[in-house]
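Quick one: co-fold with zinc ion.
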Amino acid sequence: MFVGHFALGFAAKRAVPRVSLAALCAGAQVADLLWPVFLAIGIEQVRIDPGNTAVTPLDFVSYPYSHSLLMLIVWGVLFGLVFTVRLKADARKALIFSVLAALVVSHWVLDWITHRPDMPLIPGSAKFGFGLWNSVPATMAVELTMYVAGLWIYARATRARDARGRWGFWTLAAFLAIVYVATIMGPPPPSVFAIWTSAIAGGAILVIWIWWVDRHRDVILASD
Ligand SMILES: [Zn+2]
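Sure, here it is.
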């Protein structure tokens, strides 16, 4: 899953408006931000295998540290702590911690829905996956619906402070959708090296872009 993860990040802004959208989207994408790094250092493996499922040409041979349920719970707790350790102990701190940790763990649930059975519960365990990726139309219907709903919730919970906040947001929204469709429709990546280099660079650029867009928008629903 790709834009579906961002959908949860966008939607979470309504629950914790004072947390940057960059932190929320990065939280939902911790698994996919760690994955290329672990590929680069050789502790996780992927194989290019066109037709592996209808949607992806990738065979996720092994990714126990970035994509097992247990490790995502660990990363979720750490991620939540990083953003809340300096806040004073109150209900808001507990809420922010819970939302960030839940976003990190949500990655496993959403990937379980889409992937064929390649998602471990704990490193080395049996692997699970519902396999929505066996159908391109079903995958796109589910994921794009989630994405539009997430964008809608974020757009209503915030207001552009200036032109950058308005056009930066819509450009970002369109860019993610185009990358999503192009990845599904386009040719497989040329090499594993190309996968992790583009994933690391793309992830870094997206987090900065999202942080910048969010800074140019004001929160409307000041519920926290
Ligand atoms: Zn993933």
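If it helps, The chain has a mean pLDDT of 96.
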